[in-house]
Amino acid sequence: MEENVDFTVLLNAMPGAISQGLIWGIMAIGVFLTYKVLDVADLTVDGSMCTGAAVCAMMLMNGYNIWVAMLVAFIAGILAGFVTGILHVVMGIPAILAGILTQIALYSVNLKIMGQANRVISSSKYDVLVAIKYTSGVDFYKNTIFIVSCMTVVLIAILYWFFGTELGCSMRATGSNPNMSRAQGINTKLNIVIGLMISNGIVAFASALYGQYQGFSDINMGRGAIVIGLAAVIIGNVIFSRIFRNFALQLLSVSLGAVIYFMVLQIILWFGIDTDLLKLLQALIVAIFLAFPYWKRMYVPMLKSINKRRDIRRQNKAVLAARTVSKDYREVK
Question: Looking at the structure, do residues 210 and 109 belong to the same domain, yes or no?
């Protein structure tokens, strides 16, 4: 037990937690685009989070360059988002059900891509960009944290530029007020499809990175991905919403939210919590942060009202005391 609570163990584990947080932060940015920008609940990510790693692994095993593998993984995610978009806007299936259907279909697709339940992509055998062993003891330009941080900055810059264009602004308007957008002649259905494609492309890109990082792709690696993505979005919003109001900074807050999420998990594990309870703890952490905006909306005004009434009572007591003193003074005089 003493080894579990050794502070040096926690410090040594933190680079790995930060690396995972940054990789999942890219994935969470994809979730942010559907959840916050388009206001669409997309569950496709649980499937596309595996698709990217599966495609990347098979491309590497067939001798392709890592950047080509990453690009094809991104395109595979785009196609997954396109399917969800078609199911939603063309067939009229609710977005959440369309995502579930695509997610189920992707399970079989991912198995066909890999040919089996998992594939190993060892960093000693393949030329990968990131890996667990690259989190420390290597040159800074090879460090996983540095590489993923640079990718995050580039991604945020591209998205900031894109959502400042006419198409990007129309997509934001679609999520903000679809009825008004349609009244202004905006093709909201097309915008939703494009948004789902971009979102799942980013998720698949993050998946390809995560597969390289952990050294394998697995058919179940996307299970619960939407929960982690939402947790990162909510944590970033709760902590940084007052200071990060610019769109680019909001995207950055999502990435930081994912890092905080994995650091908290690492601290919990450092205390020696039974790993069988890890999913339960993850659910509790996410539930608390998801509930925080509701608590803030419901109880902060209530507390302000209580404090205001208390101040009024104090003022009334002070006025009454002053009047009493004044009356006593006049009587004595």
Answer: yes
